[in-house]
Amino acid sequence: MRVIPLEFIDATETQTILTEYLRKPGARPGQAxxxxxxxxxxxxxxxxxxxxxxxxxxxxxRVQRIVEGLDREVEGATGAPQIIPVKNTSAAQLATTLSRxxxxxxxxxxxxxxxxxxxxxLADDTTNSLIVKARKVDYNLIAExxxxxxxxxxxxxxxxxxxxxxxxxxxxxxxxxxxxxNAGEQAKARQQAGYRAAQVAIGVDDRVPALLVAGSPEMxxxxxxxxxxxxxxxxxxxxxxKVIPVRNIPAADMKRVLEQLINQQSGGTTQxxxxxxx
Length: 278
Prior knowledge:
Elements (H helix, E strand, L loop, with lengths): L1 E4 L5 H12 L18 E5 L4 E5 L2 H14 L11 E4 L5 H20 L9 E5 L4 E5 L2 H14 L8 E6 L6 H22 L8 E6 L4 E6 L4 H13 L21 H11 L14
Antiparallel strand pairs: 1-3, 2-3, 4-6, 5-6, 7-9, 8-9
Helix pairs in contact: 6-7
């Protein structure tokens, strides 16, 4: 048996989340006996805010690693950590990508004089799951990006945080860019036998604001170029932007389509004035 003292998290809540997390497949909640993986047992002492864990040394070490990873202060986080199962990709790789994605915006906000802490995202390889401790608003963003990224990998993956101007409908912009880029890649895959379509997933942090881009790194330049061109054409007032979804178009034509889109957003100056489109 091992006693694990806790500093920032509540012992009773942590026992509940660990019991759910480690329950054997098919075991019922509240079932008596050795219902947890590895026949480990977890008890909580509310008065001392400690966990008492019994089982094999390997299982106790595993529980302690999870608990120590969770027992950190996260400003504004309430309740027990949440578990997000990962079905198709690697939880460890996903945790690394998501941690980087949500660290950068949090640091940006901290630099503006706030006291926000970075969300805590851990991976457990044994169950291929994420354990997330964060404020509700951050947890919702993390869960949304997890669902987008939890797909069968088709090649190298990466991430990038792209800040955008305030006044833009960031969520609509993200959805339309994501749909346009992915549709172009799918069209190319249909036209070229053996071609493996690249893919991006774009989330939004409205508070920065920023686009959280993950997926195939070779497509990041397309997303970044569009955002930069939108910045350049910002009018004197609030910037507005609209991305027109394009379907059934080869990825090779994507740059030309996006440039035409930017020209259309320039207020029609390239039409009826003798100006020539690029």
